[in-house]
């Protein structure tokens, strides 16, 4: 990674592998809290995420990494995950805007019955898309398999052509993995071909470009095609350092869990946490140590600063507060 602009409130790093689009890792205290602390949920979660996006938008603009103008900018919300990011409000808070627009599209994915490791879109009924003659698009979504994002990007380009709009740029925020870069790279090429003067695609990974487990991924507890793992991920230095604040942080099942339920239906999210930490507790009773689980889920992190922490005790600490909310 290459440092762009780093301060205690917000840091930007450039990933150098993808030459077609601008790939940025952004780190803030708010997104570190979201990715580390499972207690951050509901309104607190969405408020923190909106505040983080406000800071990042301002810093992107200050470093000339966007080309946004108020009356040309449209927030494109992919329901329901896109609502988590609060990008309409973030743009207003970052730049004092009031006349930017907001459009919506639904894209619900599901596993295929005959091939559970493959995903397809099962719900696309709602769409309300407004576009000016020249449009810069700002989007946020969680990306694991990229099924919803791929569908949304095709729909976005098709709608722009239908409405006679010239797309100028795309800024995409994600808690996600490398599929986001692959899909946006293809979209960028499509936009440069179809919209003369298309300027740039900026992909902002929040805290890191995480990995997504496959069937062959050798970890004890995983949900394939869904989890975002620290295992072999590219992460901001501040995020890596923050793992030592609590021994539960680096062994979380996922960097975000289910973003929709975490924001809009906490009971489902809390049950998800209970299921995970109950499984980790079973591992602890079977003799798995904290150091062993850490090596499995985040082998690059030095266990020494945690001392002789007991895995069972970490589980108990989590299950106490989770059970109180069930």
Q: What count of helical segments does DSSP give?
A: 10
Biggest β-sheet description: 10 strands, mixed
User: What is the typical, i.e. mean, pLDDT?
Assistant: 91
Query: How many strands appear in the DSSP assignment?
Result: 12
Which outline best applies?
A: elongated
CATH class of the domain at 2-209: Alpha Beta
Radius of gyration: 20 Å
Order of helices and strands: EEEHHEHEEEEEHEHEEHHHHH
What structural category do the secondary elements indicate? Answer: alpha/beta
| Proportion of residues in helical segments | 25-40%
Kindly estimate the percentage of residues that lie in beta strands according to DSSP. 25-35%
Task: Identify the CATH architecture of the domain at 2-209.
Answer: 3-Layer(aba) Sandwich
Structure description:
By secondary structure, the protein is of the alpha/beta class. It has a domain of 208 residues: Rossmann fold, CATH 3.40.50. The protein is 39% helix and 25% strand. It is built from ten helices and twelve strands. Strands 1, 2, 3, 4, 5, 8, 9, 10, 11 and 12 form a ten-stranded mixed beta sheet that branches. Strands 6-7 form a two-stranded antiparallel sheet. α4 runs parallel beside α5. It is elongated and about 65 Å long. About 2% of the residues have low confidence.
